[in-house]
Fold:
Amino acid sequence: MTSVILAIIVASSGAAFGADGAALWAQHCASCHGKDGSGNTTMGKKLGVKDYTKSQSFSDAEAANVIKNGKGKMKAYKDKLSDADVKALVAYVRSLKK
Structure:
C-alpha cells in the first residue's frame, strides 16, 4: 500500500512541477502569435508571423533554437526560459496545428 501511494506521489509530482506550455504561451507568445497560434493579432500582422495552426515546416530543434536565440524581429528568451520551458513551448506549438 505504501509503495502504491509513493508511486502516485512521484508520478504526479512531475506534472505539478513541469513546465506549462499553455501558460508560457499566454505569457510570452500570444501577444504576437495569437492565443490560437494563428498570428491574427495587431502585432502578429505587423510582423508577418506564421500561422502555426496551418503550417509547421520546422523541426523541434529549429523551434527550440528560435525560442532561445530569437530570429528576425522575435527576441531571444534564453535568459527567461529554462530548457524545460522551451521544450514545453515546442510541444504546445505542435498542439496548435489543426
